[in-house]
Amino acid sequence: MNSSREDSMSAEDLRQQLYHTFKERGLLDSLKSQLRNKLITELRSSGRSERVPRPVEIPEGGSLLHRAANSLVADHLQKCSYDYTLSVFLPESGISRDQLLTTSDFLQLLRVHPQSKVHKSLIGKLPGSSKGFLWQLLCELTSALPQGLTEDIGCQTDATTLPPSASLNDKLRSVDERFSVQRDQLAASSALTIEDRMLSFQRKVDERARSQVKQEVAHFKETELVRMKLEEKEKTRREMDAMRRELEQEYRTKSDALLARERNAIERLQKQQEIQDKEMHAQRQAILEELETVRNREAQARREAEVNDRAVQIEQDKMKSLEENIHRREEAVRNIEETYEKRLNNEMMKYKLEVKGQYVKILQEEEEREARNREEARHLAEERTAQTRVKEELRETTAGLKQLERDLEAKDRDMSYTTKQNQVLQERLREMGDLRHIKEEAALLQRELDSANRKLAEMGNDHQQEKSSK
């Protein structure tokens, strides 16, 4: 009993065990976030919910900056695998995953020049990094800030500036390079006057200023164009949201109308179903009554069939007794035939022996007479005539015997024919169920058997008469 209780675990124990297992493996927060995200997605995708989503308050700074801030936070949460917080933050902020800004959008919004070191560093590090754009941007900003509170800045003769993120060694190395270049230039142009150098320096400064102005104008155009694009995109998104809300409201109205029509159709179908059920009930009752009458008829027919079967069984018993009687009579006829045949064979053997003895005696007498006296021609002639008469009698007797054999063969054929006819009649008795016809066939068979018996009796009488006459 204890082992069976240990094996059978209740639902509460299973739930607690699964909870502790997921918590120990660190899967609990991930499962919570997945379930919450799936629940929110299904609630949003369901069209039957009439709950109006809570409007998100947009600060006065502009919807683009608000969207960019939300995108930064969402990107940071996604990169750090804060799935549960991300699933809570996205619905609360009112944006979806497809509305998040990309890295290039962030850089254009911050007006970072594409050729700058910060732009290149962020673009190069983000694809293979596990941190988000916010983390990389903070890292770049902290690395670009000066290490101390003060910094010595020297005035250079040319207007070029060092990159702010360069180290002290790089700055000193660049100063040395510029000094060597200027020294070479001064050595090459030592013949020029101070005015020429001032004019050339002024031209260089003007050209550098014009190029800087052009760069600033181009950068401003790019950033403004990007800002305008983003604002236009945001405006388009708002219009699409408004249009989607209008379409959802229209579809909701149509859905309500369709639901009302569906309810009406269901009510009509229910009424029709009730009417059909009543009709089916009436038809079922009628069919049950018909089935009851059919069962009664079947019972009556079964009783009649049983009575007929009993009558047929009685008739079959009678026919079997009749067949047995016929078989007994056939056996008696067969015994009589065998007896007659034996007696006929015996009589024929006796007659042959007698004729043979008489013939031997006649031959002996003739030999004796021939040996005794040839002169007794007259007696010999008489004996010859007597012999001729005996031969004729023998021939007649042989012919009578052959006739008797033919009669016996005819009788055998009649008996075989009677046997075959009896078999045919028995097959007919099995196939036919008419009692009157069966009786007629039995009477006919009886008459044929009587005629066969009479023929046998007549043949026996004829045989006795022939035997007595001989």
Automatic annotation (TrEMBL):
Keyword match NADP: no
Q: Name one GO biological process term.
A: epithelial cilium movement involved in determination of left/right asymmetry
- The answer to whether keyword Acetylation applies is no
- Signal peptide positions (record): none
Keywords for the protein's UniProt record, in alphabetical order: Coiled coil
Q: Which GO terms describe its cellular component?
A: centrosome; ciliary basal body; extracellular region
Q: Which Pfam families match?
A: LisH_2
Coiled coil start-end: 226-462
Please identify the protein, giving its name as recorded: Oral-facial-digital syndrome 1 protein homolog
Q: Which organism's genome codes for this protein? A: Branchiostoma floridae
